[in-house]
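haha ok so turns out i had the wrong file open the whole time. this is the CORRECT one, sorry everyone. sequence first:
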Amino acid sequence: MIAAFKTIAIERRFAIVAPSSGYAEALHDFTWTVGDKPNEITSDFRHVAACVAETRAREDVKLDATHTLIVGFSGGGSSAPYIATNTAGYAAFAVLHGGVFITGIGPRRVPGWFSSGATDPIRPAQGVLESAQAMRTAGFNVTYRSYPSTHVVSERELADIVDWWFALRP
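then structure:
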C-alpha cells in the first residue's frame, strides 16, 4: 500500500501507515483477523492501533485526528470498516477490491468507500458491490466505484479515493 499511495501522498501531503497482517496458525499463512462481532478485539486490531499510536506519537509527524482514513486492500479490505466502526480516531474507511464482515461492524457511523476492478478474478466486482450495499443497508453513507482493471489499484482509483476523502474534510 505504501508503494501504491506514495506518489499521491507526497503530492497531496498526507502520511501513510501500512501495518502488515499477522500469521494465522490455523491457515499456515499471513492473513488479517477481523472480528465478526462488534467491539471484538483481534490481534490485528491491536496491531493497527499500536502502529497508528506510534505514528501519532512522533514529534516530526502531525496527523489530523479528525480526518484519518483507514484503507484496506483485498483480504485486508474488511479490516478497514471493522476498525473504523469499532474505535474512535477514524473519519472514514475505504475497501479496495475487498469485502466486509457485516456482523463485525461496530456502532460508529463513518462514511465508506468501496471500489473494485471490473474484471477482478480474485475479488469480483459483484461481491464488492454487495458489501457496499450491505453497509448502506446498515445505515452507512457509502460510495461505490468500479474501474476497468483486475486485482490492482489504478492511479485513477487512487486519485478518486483521495479526492473523496479530502472532500470529507470538516
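Helices lie at 2-12, 43-57, 79-86, 125-137, 155-167.
again sry for the mixup
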